[in-house]
Amino acid sequence: MSPAAEVLADYRAQSLSLRGHPLGFLRPSLLRRGIRSAAELGAAENGQRAAVAGIVLVRQRPGTAKGITFFTLEDETGSANLIVRPHVWRRCRAAARNAVILLAAGRVQRQGEVIHLLADHLEDLSHQMADLDARSRDFC
């Protein structure tokens, strides 16, 4: 088996792998598109445009959030938090609702050590690793 196939087999069996992270195999193509890792997002300035991609771990829409949905994405460097406003959710509904691997672009919001990406575009990248068996925890 190739290293990528071994990691995907681990994810199918245990939902994780000690051999590597699936996004690590996509990183060269993501870098060519200017998509940052979660760790690199942490170095971005407040208000700066950025894009990040990762496996969707959590989608949550609290009743008190006025329709805003919060996502947590994971890549090989860590996690990234997204804020998705209702109009973006509606416009990018298929990706927002169904993506296993999600690309998000928008503006960085920093408040001290807390960093979010206020997304204005979502794209489903699941087709780039169609054999990935990962399930998000959805509270929407």
Give me the secondary-structure topology.
Blueprint: H1 3-14, H2 22-32, H3 38-41, E1 49-60, E2 69-75, E3 78-84, H4 86-91, H5 93-98, E4 101-111, E5 114-124, E6 137-139
Parallel strand pairs: 1-6, 3-5
Antiparallel strand pairs: 1-2, 1-4, 2-3, 4-5
Question: Can you give me a brief rundown of this structure?
Answer:
28% of the residues lie in helices and 36% in strands.
Could you walk me through the main structural features you see in this protein, from its secondary elements to its overall organization?
This protein is an alpha/beta fold. Helices cover 28% and strands 36% of the residues. The protein contains five helices and six strands. It has helices at 3-14, 22-32, 38-41, 86-91, 93-98; strands spanning 49-60, 69-75, 78-84, 101-111, 114-124, 137-139. The chain has a five-stranded mixed barrel. It starts with a helix and ends with a strand. The model has no long low-confidence stretch (mean pLDDT 94).
